[in-house]
Amino acid sequence: MTENRKIGFMERLFGAKPKPADPSPAPPEAEAPQTADRPADPPPPPPLDTPPLSAPTEDRAPPPDASTAPGNSTDMDEEPHGLAGPPETTVEFVEEVEDALETPPEPVPPIPAPSPLSVAADAAPRQNWFQRLATGLKRSSDQLTGGITAVFTKKRLDEAMLEELEDVLIQADFGVETATSVTDALRRDRFDRDVTTAEVRAVLAGEVARVLAPVARPLDIDPAHKPFVILMVGVNGSGKTTTIGKLAQKLSAEGKSVMLAAGDTFRAAAIEQLQVWGRRTGAPVVAKPTGADASGLAFEAVTRARAEGSDVLIIDTAGRLQNRDELMSELEKIVRVIKKVDPTAPHATLLTLDATTGQNALSQVEIFGRRAGVSGLVMTKLDGTARGGILVSIARKHGLPVHFIGVGEGVDDLEPFKADDFARAIAGRAE
Ligand SMILES: Nc1nc2c(ncn2[C@@H]2O[C@H](COP(=O)(O)OP(=O)(O)OP(=O)(O)O)[C@@H](O)[C@H]2O)c(=O)[nH]1
Q1: Is the CB of 381 under 6 A from ligand 1?
Q2: Could you tell me if the CB of 264 is within 6 A of ligand 1?
Q3: Comma-separated ranges of CATH 1.20.120.140 domains in the chain
């Protein structure tokens, strides 16, 4: 019987009822003309789902303009990626950046980043984190609940229902192993007995929590390192800069002195975006004019943070696709140069993963891990996908710590990752 089931399962995977196309094959290398300093990045892999709430997924089309968060937009944002002569090369701009470097920023009390989501949240009664998590994961949980309800039309659990459930879970990106462990557990405990959808969701939540518990690890800022250097890496538009802002806010609120480094020297808008976050959180920002060498900037930033006794230095980097060898080499160089100032740094290299990129995230973890020595993950935009199960696939395959997850653009929408909460929210067990 098991044998029959396995054959049926493979057929369903690759045969009569295939899973939707896997976007993981890397997009072809851009053959478009390259700029003198740096090739224009091809767009990041397309999301599998309908675009999320507002601007975010738009940002991942070329150019990867990250600055659509209110307060961050500039005229420059309209510039196509890589076009010559943007205003950031003007004397005024350069002076502005240099002035910003010279003038110590006035301490500004941290204010939450305004966003359509946080504004809406302010109007409504304030949600606690679990409620926001459950709201953020609603697309995923609705899709799952709908799929499970459609499968469990009969009371008594039979093999056909288990096979269909396996499909539902695989299509939600939980991965084959998690899907089979859920159905194996149900087969073992419930076969030929009455089962409700709530019981199925409870089994799913249990399995998800079991897989995620070992990777749900907080980001430990070791005070022995001063500064504790965090390098933020990821593909274009995955949420690096926004995550840096949210992290800076959290760390400042804990009483740590934070310095930021605008290492995405390729985009003026990214530099400005970080400066806005710096003003909001009272963190000084080390920046250079667009086009400056990113590793040189990282060197300066570590040197300055050390001289000023900062507790934490967070270095932004330009978004890059993992299959762009020369850009990944540039990242390796940044790491090498940081080590010249402090051989133990970076103390954390965080990969931000956009949950809407689906299966491609697996290859991002693998290649960024190999080239940049990723120490932990931040998964953003879980609110923009119905396939939040991808986090479970990544945890099972790579076992890297997941420090934070993002379920919105607001400053409160990033929280330390907790396996149980995530499991309950995604399985629609918000009670
Ligand atoms: N809905 C939602 N949007 C998010 C989340 N995190 C980030 N964003 C949005 O995603 C967009 C891109 O974020 P950025 O932080 O600029 O991304 P980036 O990785 O720095 O981008 P590049 O510098 O182009 O590589 C912005 O509009 C953010 O507001 C999240 O958890 N949920």
Answers
A1: yes
A2: yes
A3: 2-6+135-214
Residues annotated in a binding site for GTP: 234-241, 316-320, 380-383
Cα distances (Å, whole numbers) of residue 428 to 142, 227, 401: 7, 41, 24
* Distance of alpha carbon 126 from alpha carbon 124, whole angstroms: 6
For the domain bounded by 102-115+217-426, which CATH number is listed?
3.40.50.300
CA–centroid distance, residue 236 to ligand 1 (Å): 9
Q: Could you report the per-residue pLDDT of 281-299, keeping only the tens digit for each? A: 999 999 999 989 999 999 9
Q: How far apart are alpha carbons 150 and 168 in whole angstroms?
A: 10
**CA 413 – ligand 1 centroid, Å:** 12
Q: How far apart are the C-alpha atoms of 395 and 390, rounded to whole Å?
A: 9
Nearest CA to ligand 1 atom 7: 239
Class of domain 2-6+135-214: mainly alpha
Mark 146-171 as b/e (b = at least 16 C-beta within 10 Å): ebbeebbeeeebeeebbbbbbbbbbb
User: What's the 57 CA to ligand 1 centre distance in angstroms?
Assistant: 9
User: Is 144 near ligand 1, meaning CB less than 6 Å away?
Assistant: no
Structure tokens at 386: 């119905």
69-104 pLDDT, tens digit per residue, is 333 333 333 333 333 333 333 445 434 434 444 444
